[in-house]
Amino acid sequence: MVATVNDYDIEIANVAGEFPSHSHEETDEFFLVLRGPFELRLRDSVITLREGDVYTVPAGVEHAPRAEPGTRILMVEPRGTLNTGDAETGTAGTRLV
Amino acid sequence: MVATVNDYDIEIANVAGEFPSHSHEETDEFFLVLRGPFELRLRDSVITLREGDVYTVPAGVEHAPRAEPGTRILMVEPRGTLNTGDAETGTAGTRLV
Predict the structure, then answer these.
(1) A45: which residues sit within 8 A by CB, 6+ positions away?
(2) Contact, A5 vs B77, CB < 8 A?
(3) Which of A8, A33, A82, B83 has its CA 20 to 30 A from that of A93?
(4) Would the CB atoms of B6 and A78 count as touching at under 8 Å?
(5) What is the C-alpha separation between A95 and A16, in angstroms, rounded?
(6) Is this complex's ipTM strictly greater than 0.90?
(7) What is the CA radius of gyration of chain B?
(8) Cβ–Cβ below 8 Å for B10 and A4
(9) SS3 content of chain B, % helix, strand, coil (to 5)
(10) Interchain contact, B10 vs A77, CB within 8 Å
(11) How far is Cα B48 from Cα B41, in angstroms, rounded to an integer?
(12) Which of B13-22, B41-50, B81-90 has the lowest mean pLDDT?
């Protein structure tokens, strides 16, 4: 977490690997790719984001992030949001802040 | 404005010039510099941000943005926040989305 805006957290993270599919029932989740590519596998499609691309996953939409080593993203979400949302499994990917 | 997260706007803008000093009484304002440098002149100091730097101006704190042509920033703030805050003068700088 690098900054806050009112009751929102701004996070910058290096990510690598596949993260379990999950959704956030209560909140949207915003991604800006600082160094890509970064994939969001949705139920019926795959969103591939490159450096400078942005994407907001709407509340309730299942998404599985996936990245190669070296990927760096910025996220915006309400304070206390779990990055794994409702996933019951552990996080498979690696998150290095 | 490039995306929303719940009731927040994410904006990416090319900015140049000096903007009038202003504050936002009701909200913090977050800046990420995508291409710098970008200056925030506060009452008693000047914050110089370079590519990748982030800064949150707390609610109520006066700040005057300043940038050379070619500067690109990302901002996060509640929907409907005026970039000029409480400034009564027009915007002197140039904002090109």
Answers:
(1) none
(2) yes
(3) A8
(4) yes
(5) 7
(6) no
(7) 12
(8) no
(9) 0, 55, 45
(10) no
(11) 8
(12) B81-90
| Interface list for A 38-77 with B (CB within 8 A) | 52, 54-56, 59, 74, 76-77
pLDDT at A78 over 90: yes
Cβ partners under 8 Å of residue A93, min gap 6: A15, A16, A17, A18, A19, A65, A66, A67
Handedness of CA B79, A3, A95, A51 (dihedral sign): positive
For residue B44, what are the contacts with CB-CB under 8 A and spacing of at least 6? none
Cα dihedral A48, A50, A56, A62, rounded to 10, equals 30
Residue B56 has pLDDT above 80, yes or no: yes
Token output for A24: 């956030």
Q: Parallel, antiparallel, or unpaired for β B8-18 and A29-35? A: unpaired
Convert the pLDDT of each residue in A16-43 to its tens digit.
999 999 999 999 999 999 999 999 999 9
Q: What does the alpha-carbon distance between residue B24 and residue A23 come to, in Å, rounded to a whole number?
A: 33
User: In terms of CA atoms, which chain B residue is nearest residue A59?
Assistant: B6
Q: Give the nearest partner residue to A5 out of B3, B52, B56, using CB atoms.
A: B56
